[in-house]
Amino acid sequence: MKFLRNVLIVISLGLVISLGVLVYLSPSKSHYQYLNFSSNVAVGENYLGIDVSHYQGEINWEEVDSVNHYGDSVSFVFIKATEGIDLIDPMLAINAEGVQETDLKFGFYHFYRPDVSAKEQAYHFIDNTQELNATLKPVIDVETIGDLSSNELVDSINTFIIAVQEELRTPIILYTYHNFYEENLKSDLDYEQLIWIANYNNEFEFDRADYAQIWQFTDRGTVDGIGHNVDLNIAKKGNWEEIQRD
Fold it and tell me: Which member of 31, 43, 128, 241 has the lowest number of beta carbons within 10 Å of its beta carbon?
């Protein structure tokens, strides 16, 4: 009888644990339950943000805005707007409308294609974002060099930046990966250029990287209101005002 009782206890404990796991993973909850947003990077006194595109699907912006995880909440978001000279992100209009119902700071980014006209890309981005009431500075996302040399790439990027700055009357942020920045951009960019760097190494010393105002530290974050993994970012407290629109 003692053996049978022990077996029953083990089975009961197994059922309780299984039920707990099912509740934890239940899609009826806010899509995801998370541990440190799936990252061990400490936000501290800095600001936590996300960036999204159609890959995240339909977003519950009210849930995103109300996230509070041990004192950390989402403060800002960058939304993909355009790519190249003719692509518009399929979720741009929906995301732009949804985020404006929240208290989140928000801005828009353009995925840059070095193999097509920089000016045409700039005006494509401008035409599709200038009426969307962004509260953060616009972003150019540069990840490929194409057939250009490093000098040619930077010249091309500067053409885009100048056109956007003149039309939108605001400086622009440049997003890129850390290695790509070091190999292709660092030596030729204006030293005053605002930089958003992607580096998924948790040992990256962001506080000492004076050239970068924003750090994308993972592409596998989990945030309530978003049903897919999402990029997580930290904006330095000291640069918080600098990345916002005037």
Answer: 241
- Here the tokens at position 211 are 């050239």
pLDDT of residue 22: 39
Tell me the whole-structure pTM to 2 decimals.
Answer: 0.86
Domain that holds residue 23: 1-30
- In this structure, the answer to whether residues 133 and 189 fall within a common structural domain is yes
**Positions marked catalytic:** 51, 143
Does residue 42 share a domain with residue 102?
Answer: yes
Token match 């509740």: residue? 23
Residue 4 has a pLDDT of 44
Residues 115-152: tens digit of each pLDDT:
999 999 999 999 999 999 999 999 999 999 999 999 99
Strand-pair partners of 45: none
Question: For residue 137, is it left (φ>0), alpha (ψ between -120 and 50) or beta?
Answer: beta
- Residue 165 and residue 87 in one domain: yes
